[in-house]
What we know:
Elements: E1 4-10, H1 16-26, E2 39-43, H2 50-53, H3 60-70, E3 77-81, H4 89-96, H5 99-105, E4 108-111, E5 117-118, E6 130-131, H6 132-135, E7 139-143, E8 145-149, E9 153-155, H7 177-188, E10 192-202, E11 210-220, H8 223-233, H9 242-249, E12 260-263, H10 266-269, H11 280-288, H12 292-299, H13 302-323
Parallel strand pairs: 1-12, 2-3, 2-7, 3-4, 7-10, 8-10
Antiparallel strand pairs: 1-11, 5-6, 8-9, 10-11
Amino acid sequence: MPESRVMIRSLHDASVDAIVREIFESFDYRSWIPEGAKVAVKVNLSTPFAENAEGSNTDPRILDAVCAVLRERTHHIAVGESNGMRYDTEQAFEVTGYLPILEKHGVRMVNFSKDEWMETGEPLIKGWKLPRTLLEADAFITLPVLKTHATTVFTGALKNQFGCYPQHNRILLHPKLDDVIVLINRLLKPRLAIMDGIVAMEGRGPINGKPRRMDVILGSSDPVALDSTAMRLVGLDPYLSGHIRKAAQGGLGTIASETIALDGPFDRLRTTFEPAEKDLPIKALGLISRSRFLTEKLILNPESFYPLRRSALVFRDVRDFVRGIPRAVRKS
């Protein structure tokens, strides 16, 4: 018997507002969002640049629809994200068009990096505090984007919570990335995940891949089942993503297809995505990130990072030229 259910809806059949409301209703949101509850919503803001926002950041229409439903239950809603390695999250909020939405609904924006941080007592992340807003929320909702990922194969409902670690240098957690993703989900206990597949991303995500219009929204109370289903929807094997596999093994949800009830036109919407290629620059980044010293000196330090980035771009340009890939379709 299926243990979890994943809803799959197409924008060709209903509006964003209608789909989001149906997902909330279907997962009985009133039972776990009491009137006046403190609700935290985690958006996926991977870039502050307008040219990369489509396919990288959660569609503002989804955030608008989520806020509209939540405001019927409570005024205590916080929508948040943490700073990126080299930018403040306020920039990404503005570029993605969130600020008028938050103002319209009277919803609070929270930069988790500027929130008060609290210890968790978890040995795995000793010294890495978490935002008070998240730890004290009565309900936590995550709004990921459906994307391939150069490091983790896929990023979705589970990986979105990595951005809940508020430190801009959280890349230092990469040597134990799968485990810290599982842990943050265990701590925050997302009650609902609504995945943005309106414009998804294939190839070298989560920022520099190719935007792929799917006009799909998925939802579930089980983030493992949601990620697993989304991967199968785009032709990827969920068992290849370490954090999804470990989350299932750790009891955070279900990964096996026979344990997931699909509610929606899965077969009609399924497609095949180009996976993220683990090319030489990505492999080099993986090796560097194993060392705290090298990560701090080469990745977190702008004086060394930008020359390395330019070298990676030159490498990819030369490689693509040799492969005969036209410049117009290359991604930097």
